[in-house]
Amino acid sequence: MREKFCKDLHHVYQMLQDEQEELQKFYDLLHSCRSLFDPKMEERYYIIEEFLEYLSLEVNEETMLAAITRLVNLREDALLQVIRDLSEDEQIKVREKAYVWVSNYYLSLFQKRIEKIEKAQLLTPFYRAILRHAHSIGEVFSSWHTSWMAQIIYGINRELFEFFNGDEEKIFYMLNEKQLFDRGHSGEPADRSYSVLKIDEEGNFHRLSYAQAFKEEVDLALQKIDEVIQELGDLEDEVFHLENEWRYYFKKIKEALKEEDPDRLIAKWADVDRAWMQITSPVQIGHPLEYYEDRYRKAVALEWDVRIENPKYPKKDHSKKMELMFRKLYDELGVKAPSVYESTLQNLQKTQLYVGRPFSFYGSEFNGLFSAQVVPNDEVVSKEHGKKIFAYPDMILSSLKAKPPMKITTKIFGKELVKKIRRVLDEPQIWYKIYDISTIGHEYGHILWMDESSEMLMNRSGMFKNAEEFKATTGGLIAHFLFEDDTLWEYLLHDIAARAVSLIGWMEVDEVQPYYVEGLLHLQGLFACGVFSLNKILL
Fold first, then answer.
1. Residue 237: CB partners within 8 Å, gap ≥ 6?
2. Secondary element (H or E) of residue 197
């Protein structure tokens, strides 16, 4: 049974790769003449033309690149450049319309994927039910996302910014002073929220759980979750024998979504994470985990997806190398932080690594997918059960090869150096090694130097995320250079340099500000050590 499942999983994995390659052919519109003898090219052109018409944007080279980037890579940066001269309210309308159009496109694509799997009877009845019901729940999350953005990002956050004249230090002080954060495991202000801030007619602030603030959406999501719990109750996981774990996981999601007391939300969602850590099958679900969008109260976004593991990806012991590096630096630096030391080692030793592809994604993820991710963010849960790391190297390599280099990269480095930097895309054996160091290493780097109070303490007077992405990348690089040979140094330098420059293009995208800050810190280091200079680049 397991052998057949792995064979079916590989078939599904290949199907996803083929579909991604087809999707990335939209980029051919930027450098190929449309031909009446290529009906697929014509079809792609009309799709992008329809998209731009829906956004009320004219069709030209710049808008086509923006539309294709938004559709294929789910990135907003090129679109934001196109609409930069519009008012803030007009920009929000265009961004929301783009979200709706893109989400509808993918929802249709995912439905067809599931129908193909059902028709071919791939995987098992149990996991086909998981895919089908996850899609049904994801549709709810996707329609819910618009009102989530309206109330939090475009609503209360704009009001706070305007009320305090953009002084974010005063905003954080007020939120702490009035105790407007959700409560953590010991009653302390938590590092994230599952609630919405509201202002009443008297000007007083109140917190409302998602169940209260988005009653219709939550009720519909609960209905869909009840349906999956009911169907899974009649099915058995014949391959991995995790049927009880899956049922318990969905039950805990239901309990968390139903909770109306904001001070009980952290505990409820921690139970979701605990249940999720027990699911170790190659089919995984991503539930609400991240909070990049909300810079003030770190409201957890409506993340929902299905991820599948590549059955042929070779397993490596990343944790051991990171652990050796961490122990060495801890001793050499003479740090005295036993809680951080123990938490880091326990997390590293319990970490699960899944290398694969997204099967389907919903909600906030139509605004951008992860190249990799380490979760849960709840450090109390992580101390008990470790973390899961997800990495998508096949998807990223295919995407990088299809997309033309950014204009800012070409302008900074010049065409010849860009060709040299991009040569690694045609050397997959080397590229996968670089991804292993800089991306999977980055996710392991997030685990370092952390205990359950680190983020909460730093957020009192700063923004933890704005330092954390740089720390993570650096951790992965140090682990490599301490214990591996240096034959890849030039490729790694090219990778870091090109990424640092490309991240400048994200300056105006609030939800990825931590990566923009990471780019600035890398650039500072490159200039400080003489690799970069104002009139030449020593690469």
1. 124, 126, 127, 243, 246, 281
2. strand 195-199
